[in-house]
Design a protein that fits this description.
Low-confidence stretches: none
Shape: globular
Mean pLDDT: 85
Strand content: 25-35%
Structural class: alpha+beta
Helix content: 10-25%
Amino acid sequence: MSVPMLNKMHMNGYDVLSVSNGPWRVCTQGDRLGSFDTREEALAFAASLPGYRAPAGRPARSHQPK
């Protein structure tokens, strides 16, 4: 039994990753944007995209003293 190996990088806010020497993928947390044969192709694609910032969660509730 082999253990999956994860190679992961970040470029412009996107994840660039490969699992067990499979294809390189460019992703956000919820979407896969592309799949590539080489790391260089995936990094070039991520570099060509506009910068990505994950949407902010709910604003924190502020405590109002009574």
